[in-house]
Structure formats: structure tokens, C-alpha cells
Design goal:
Order of helices and strands: HHHEEHHHHHHHHHHHHH
Number of strands: 2
Largest sheet: 2 strands, antiparallel
Radius of gyration: 20 Å
Number of helices: 16
Shape: globular
């Protein structure tokens, strides 16, 4: 691993500091970038995420994708965690912390909105960044693609009913533009580009794919750090002005994230899943589709509501927390059996420790 890969957590930390600092000293620039969005999807952030995802899409071998169905345990684990456990534990933790433990510091109206924002995060499993986390833990790109695709399909039908049930509302409107645009930007387009690139490279030589992906490594890391800078720059003023509220919201989100990961990871170990399937399967459940959650929170409760703020805190917490989980997954690689019965994949970008 190179200098950037080995100390990725350090660079991300510096990116967080740079984002907050730049957001405070050049707020106009970040406001301009924040305005470049459609259906609550920021187009600049989308480009950086696309840069991160593209290398993994090149590694997807369509001859191997069809074999994923023969090993459904990883898919089953992902679906159970995402749709039968995560939304309900998030709601329970929200009630526990904001109606009981944090009640002396938060008024009831705000508490209800914070809980609503947490619920929206819990009902929206991640689409885009999962590919990044999968790269970092050297996950099977073919299996990860199927996991994300199946979750996206279920989300189309399950998001609104589960969110409406937990929020206690009956007129929940799903922002379909956000859902569809994010799927196209983060899955369909990079997948098509990756397929086309792989086809061209494979016609040259067997080594061409691995060599090309290796050359993309620096760009993948730049995309990750640039995304972090933007996300924290957008919310720099909120971070400075409301540190106590952000800290209070972050506590149950942290408990939820590490708790869901622990449940999924122990289940994966008990199921004896190979590491390159277990890692992404567990990280999908702990990461969130924040564009969708933010969009619904704004449409239901307003731009300056506590619900919208809670979804934003989810964005801020996600990257550093997910990097810590990536480190855990990589350092416990020896707990899981190695992938068998398929050829080794070419070197993946953003290789994590372990």
C-alpha cells in the first residue's frame, strides 16, 4: 500500500478539519456548490462519489455475477438486517435517548423531530458509498453489486410503508426523483461505464484490467477526501453553532451503527461467510442512503427542522465511523474463511489495512 492508502484515516481526518475550516471562511463558495443539486442530489458530490465507484465497477465480472445466487447467505443476512432489524432498533434508540435519557436537555417537540430524522436514516440503507466500503475491505465486487441492487429494489416498495408506520403518518410522499436519480447516478451509469471499460481492456490482455484499476487508485482516494471536505464544509456553520445538539444526536446514531454492525458481523461469522462477502454484507446495514433521508425529512418537516438536522448529523457521523468499521473488518479477516471456488480478482483500489 502507498502512503495515502496506509494512512487513509489520517487524510480523512484532515479532510474533515479542512471542510469545517473552509466552510467557515469561504461560506459563499460552499453555498454555490450546495446550490448545484437536482432532486436533493448534489451534483458535485455525485461526481466525486462516481469517481470512487467507477474503479470497482470495472472489476465486476458478469460471468461471475450469475453465480451469486448459488450462495444466498450473504444476501439473506443483508436483507434481514436492513429491513427486519435496523429500522426498528433505530426507532427504539431514538425514543430511549430523546424521550428518556436526554429529556432534561431537549424539549419534547424537538425530541420528536430528532427521532423522526433518525427513523428516516434507519429505513434508508446505503446505495453509493457501499461500493467504497466494499473496496476498502477487498469485498467481492460481483456480490456487492447484487446486494446493492436487491436492496434498492426492496427500498422502492418498503421504504414508504415502514417509514410511515414508524413515523405514525399516513400521507408520506417518497421523493421518487431523488430515489431514481441516485440509483441512476450511483449504480446504473458507473456500472455501464465499468462494463464498457472492462470489455475494452479484456480485449487487450488479461492483465490490462488490474493495471488500469491500479492507475485509478489515487483518483479514488481523491474522490473520497473531496467528498468529505464538501460534506463537512456544507454544514460547518451548523457544527459550530449547535455542537451540543449535534453531539446529542450523534450518540444514539453511534450506538445504532456499532450495534447493527456487531449483530451482522457476529451473524456472518456464525454463518461462516467468506470474508469478501461478510464484510460488505455487514457494512451495507450500517451505512445510510442520506440523500433520500434528507429529502424526505425536508419535505415532511421543513428545511430547518430537527428531523432534517438529524439526517445531516447522520451524514457527518457516517464517514469517520464507517472507516473505523472498515479497519475492524480488515483486522479480523482471519475470523472468516477465504473465498473459494472462484479465481482471484485483480488488485482493488483503496485497499484497507489487514
Amino acid at each position: 500500500m502507498g502512503l495515502f492508502e496506509r494512512y487513509l484515516s489520517v487524510w480523512v481526518g484532515l479532510g474533515i478539519l479542512a471542510g469545517v475550516g473552509l466552510g467557515l471562511f469561504a461560506p459563499g463558495a460552499f453555498q454555490a456548490i450546495a446550490g448545484l443539486e437536482f432532486a436533493q442530489v448534489n451534483l458535485v458530490v455525485a461526481v466525486f462519489i462516481w469517481v470512487m465507484i467507477y474503479p470497482m465497477m470495472i472489476q465486476i465480472d458478469w460471468h461471475a455475477v450469475k453465480d451469486v445466487g448459488r450462495k444466498p447467505q450473504g444476501l439473506i443476512l443483508t436483507l434481514v438486517v436492513n429491513w427486519l432489524i435496523k429500522p426498528f432498533t433505530m426507532a427504539a434508540l431514538g425514543v430511549l435517548f430523546f424521550q428518556h435519557l436526554f429529556a432534561p436537555w431537549v424539549d419534547p417537540a424537538s425530541a420528536s423531530e430528532y427521532i423522526a430524522g433518525m427513523i428516516l436514516l434507519g429505513v434508508a440503507p446505503c446505495t453509493a458509498m457501499v461500493f467504497v466500503w466494499s473496496q476498502l475491505v477487498k469485498g467481492d465486487p460481483n456480490y456487492t453489486l447484487v446486494q446493492v441492487s436487491v436492496n434498492d429494489l426492496i427500498m422502492v416498495f418498503a421504504f414508504a410503508p415502514i417509514a410511515a408506520f414508524l413515523l405514525g403518518v399516513t400521507d408520506l410522499t417518497v421523493p421518487w426523483e431523488t430515489l431514481l436519480l441516485s440509483t441512476v447516478l450511483y449504480v446504473v451509469l458507473p456500472l455501464l461505464a465499468g462494463m464498457a471499460t472492462r470489455h475494452v481492456l479484456e480485449r487487450r490482455s488479461k492483465q490490462a484490467v488490474g493495471e488500469f484499476v491500479g492507475r485509478l487508485k489515487p483518483w479514488s482516494i481523491v474522490g473520497l477526501i473531496a467528498t468529505v471536505v464538501l460534506l463537512f464544509g456544507f454544514q460547518a456553520r451548523t457544527i459550530v453553532e449547535k455542537p451540543l445538539v449535534i453531539g446529542l444526536i450523534a450518540v444514539p446514531l453511534l450506538v445504532q451503527t456499532y450495534g447493527i454492525f456487531l449483530i451482522a458481523y457476529l451473524a456472518a461469522k456464525a454463518m461462516k461467510l467468506p470474508h469478501d462477502v461478510a464484510g460488505p454484507a455487514c457494512l451495507i446495514g450500517t451505512s445510510n442512503f442520506f440523500e433520500l433521508a434528507v429529502a424526505v425529512a425536508i419535505s415532511l418537516f421543513g428545511l430547518n427542522s430537527g428531523a432534517a438536522l438529524a439526517t445531516v448529523v447522520g451524514v457527518l457521523v457516517e464517514v469517520p465511523v464507517m472507516l473505523s468499521l472498515v479497519a475492524i473488518v480488515n483486522r479480523t479477516r482471519h475470523w472468516f474463511p477465504r473465498a473459494a471456488d472462484r479465481p482471484a480478482a485483480p488488485d482493488r483500489p483503496l485497499g484497507g489495512r489487514g
